[in-house]
Structure to design on (296 residues):
């Protein structure tokens, strides 16, 4: 199952930081968007097809074996027009280390680079600024028409009922691509929650958290996928979905943060050619969204 993380304030962890040790490979660094790995090499704009900003996934023109060759932790730096914007470390798939800040994991196929950012929220539920959302990165990507905004997800309503809880959320496609996205209406709620932890309700001030108890359904085999799971959201369209949780913790009246991760596929799509369907592209990655709600 794809790992999905939720971070609770004031829990003490042993953090593993990443120190910047890279010397810039000036012979490989170009303008536009670049990523340098260790002191070994740079993937510059010439090798990039596009960047999905909603998931911070870089799609490469040609599959790259750099992660297959480095199963240990590597450092990396992200550059925009020759300027380093941030740096972080890679996270091997089976690593037990807890790393904060920007990370690249090995969970995706070798034609994409997925850049994550591990947040630690403070007592008010706030997180520090995300270094991936730097306007200099957007400008560098736009220079070579490699910027794609991807999808947006919003929580519309969270309504407790006598027998559970109902979540309504909306996916909006403001990109120039048509996207195939996982549809809970087509997968069913159990299979959909194999790809996501689903809805979580938290009272950050009192360190309380509430969740569902839906059992998950694993695909057979576990790394398979089916085109029947998808809904096609065309560019400039929106689609709303409703999830009914018939098993959800009882939530007292009050104000809360609702958290939800809208999931896409990751390791299941192994060949780049399989991304393109008849009318659109399979959307990879996840979107995390939060909303302040009141339970009456």
């Amino acid at each position: 199952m794809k790992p999905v993380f939720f971070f609770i304030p004031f829990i003490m962890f042993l953090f593993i930081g990443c120190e910047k040790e890279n010397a810039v490979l000036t012979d490989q660094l170009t303008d536009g968007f670049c990523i340098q790995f260790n002191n070994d090499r740079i993937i510059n704009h010439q090798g990039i097809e596009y960047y999905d900003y909603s998931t911070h996934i870089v799609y490469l023109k040609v599959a790259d074996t750099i992660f297959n060759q480095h199963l240990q932790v590597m450092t990396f730096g992200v550059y925009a027009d020759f300027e380093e914007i941030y740096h972080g470390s890679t996270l091997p798939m089976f690593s037990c280390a807890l790393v904060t800040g920007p990370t690249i994991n090995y969970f995706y196929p070798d034609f994409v680079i997925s850049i994550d950012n591990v947040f630690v929220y403070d007592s008010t539920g706030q997180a520090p600024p995300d270094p991936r959302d730097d306007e200099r990165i957007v400008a560098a990507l736009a220079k070579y028409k490699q910027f794609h905004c991807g999808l947006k997800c919003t929580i519309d309503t969270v309504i407790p009922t006598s027998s559970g809880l109902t979540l309504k959320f909306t996916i909006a496609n403001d990109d120039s691509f048509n996207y195939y996205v996982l549809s809970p209406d087509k997968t069913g709620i159990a299979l959909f929650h194999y790809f996501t932890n689903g809805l979580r309700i938290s009272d950050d001030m009192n360190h309380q958290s509430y969740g569902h108890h839906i059992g998950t359904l694993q695909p057979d085999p576990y790394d398979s996928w089916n085109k029947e799971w998808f809904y096609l959201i065309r560019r400039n369209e929106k689609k709303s979905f409703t999830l009914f949780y018939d098993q959800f913790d009882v939530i007292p009246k009050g104000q809360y943060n609702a958290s939800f991760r809208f999931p896409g596929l990751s390791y299941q799509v192994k060949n780049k050619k399989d991304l393109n369907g008849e009318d659109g592209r399979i959307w990879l990655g996840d979107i995390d969204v939060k909303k302040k709600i009141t339970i009456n």
